[in-house]
Amino acid sequence: GIQVEQSPPDLILQEGANSTLRCNFSDSVNNLQWFHQNPWGQLINLFYIPSGTKQNGRLSATTVATERYSLLYISSSQTTDSGVYFCAVISQASGTYKYIFGTGTRLKVLA
Amino acid sequence: GAVVSQHPSRVICKSGTSVKIECRSLDFQATTMFWYRQFPKQSLMLMATSNEGSKATYEQGVEKDKFLINHASLTLSTLTVTSAHPEDSSFYICSARVQDYGNTIYFGEGSWLTVV
Questions:
Q1: B101, B2 Cβ separation under 8 angstroms
Q2: What separation in angstroms does the CA of B79 have from each of A108, B34, B64, B108?
Q3: What is the spatial distance between Cα B93 and Cα B34, in angstroms, rounded to a whole number?
Q4: How many CB contacts within 8 angstroms connect chain A with chain B?
């Protein structure tokens, strides 16, 4: 099956810093989403981005489907950005709507 | 966005008993829901796909008789952990695909299960 790897696995930032999180996938995908899991476990949908670039406030994301990767940019980070960031993909070959999650990036933003 | 509600958010049960977790789509109909399991500091692992009006499709390695899934209506799927054991303690989370929004999926709040 499709493999989804995220980097870096852990990241510590000072408040106000910028960062880039990466999601690599091993096969063609139909869909890709980025999620933020807060310390209470809740998953928040950030972007639905199978291709192209989107921006929402301090966050933006870019997916280059032909090169099998997606990037999540966080600018002017805040302590509330702490948590785990996951990308999830639907493999084109699967013929289903099953999302496979990446390994995650654990982010801690220090005040 | 679409709302998916999960209940209970936390549950503690005794070893050997069964516990049911509900997943509801509050403002849309969900023909397909998904159940995930997450161990501490790990990623989410898909357990099964819940299809309204038919049997669930389980991922390889997931025990069908232990994790019973029922999707009796277009807004409700349930996961029952039968004869729970301490190793079943985990974070269980459901999601639903919103067809009108393309293939965007929304997640419930998750349920922390502790088996003592």
A1: yes
A2: 33, 10, 11, 13
A3: 8
A4: 55
Q: Which of B73, B87, B61, B91 is nearest to B25 (CA)?
A: B73
Torsion sign across C-alpha atoms B8, B9, B14, B17: positive
Full pLDDT tens readout for chain B, 116 residues = 678 999 999 999 999 999 999 999 998 888 889 999 999 889 999 999 998 888 899 999 999 999 999 998 889 999 999 999 999 999 999 999 876 656 677 889 999 999 99
Q: Give the helix/strand (H/E) hosting A10.
A: strand A10-14
Nearest CA-CA partner of A85 in A40, A28, A23, A16 = A23
CB distance A98–B91 less than 8 Å? Answer: no
Nearest CA in chain B to A43: B107
Per-residue CA distances from B77 to B13, B34, B48, B68, B111 (Å): 21, 9, 11, 10, 14
DSSP, collapsed to helix, strand or coil, labels residue A99 as coil
